[in-house]
Amino acid sequence: MLGDRLNELVVIFVSIVLQSLPFVLIGVFASALVQQYLSERTVLRWMPRRRLPGVLVAGLFGFVAPVCDCGSIPLARRMAAKGVPGYAAVTFMLAAPVVNPIVLLSTLIAFQGNWTIVGLRMAMTLSVAVAVGLAASVMFPGARGLGPRPAPIRGGSGDSLQPGRQRLGLVTLVRQANGEFFEVIFFVVLGALFTARPRHWSRVATCWRSAAIRSAQSPS
After folding, report:
1. Which of 23, 116, 32 is nearest to 62 (CA)?
2. How high is the pLDDT of residue 208?
3. What is the DSSP code string of the chain?
4. Which of 5, 19, 74, 77 counts the highest number of beta carbons within 10 A?
5. CB half-sphere exposure, 1, CA atoms < 13 A
6. pLDDT at residue 24, rounded to an integer
7. Of 65, 57, 132, which is closest to residue 94 (Cα–Cα)?
8. Model confidence over 109-129: pLDDT tens digits?
9. Distance between CA 202 and CA 50 in Å, rounded?
10. Is the pTM of this model over 0.85?
11. Cα separation of 200 and 193, whole Å?
């Protein structure tokens, strides 16, 4: 009995981790690409300086970033390091895991083609993300706009695109993604463990307690 319960918990835990891995990998490689090829000059040119347009752009960027909750963190962090305001990065982290095309398609399939549910989920998520982003821009005035950074971040200059440096650029990209992956995977594993735990932990604990009682009552 106890072995069956533990086996069921392990199966749920492993399933959650395996389902999350593709989206985490997309997030860490997207983060590495931003670090490697996106320059601060490009961010300054394309990112709106006003709060509301900046928050809206960050929320809409979630439509083209198929990342999960954990995968959005390294990407948002790297965007912030490149000059994206903190409140815009927060907006992206809230919006991307829900409004990305994979999640919207999954929602459509789960609700048997009900576009109303998909639209409501998308609208509510964007509303919350935009509201939180605007609130963050007010609560943290120092993050209201883009400004010059004292120490430019390496990468994004385009040098790695030169023919003689393509291999070096690829190695650097993989190393950066690898570092991001091992920073994020701990939280994925922890979240999967706590997700699998509530459903079966009480029954597992009951089995352990029963086994301990039987062991204590058995004659030596």
Report:
1. 23
2. 58
3. -HHHHHHHHHHHHHHHHHHHHHHHHHHHHHHHHHHHH--HHHHHHHS-SSHHHHHHHHHHHGGG----HHHHHHHHHHHHHTT--HHHHHHHHHHHHHHSHHHHHHHHHHTTT-HHHHHHHHHHHHHHHHHHHHHHHHH-GGGSS----SSPPS--SSGGGSGGGHHHHHHHHHHHHHHHHHHHHHHHHHHHHHHHHHHHHHHHHHHHHHHHHHHHHS--
4. 74
5. 9
6. 82
7. 132
8. 889 889 999 999 999 999 999
9. 51
10. no
11. 11
Crossing angle between the packed helical segments 86-99 and 51-61, to the nearest 10 degrees: 30
Longest dimension (CA), the chain: 79
Q: How many residues does the chain have?
A: 220
59 class by beta-carbon count within 10 Å (0-12 exposed, 13-18 middle, 19+ buried)? buried
* Under 8 Å between Cβ of 183 and 24: no
Tokens standing for 44?
């300054």
On the 0-12 / 13-18 / 19+ scale of CB atoms within 10 A, 37 is middle
- Which pLDDT score, from 0 to 100, does residue 126 have? 93
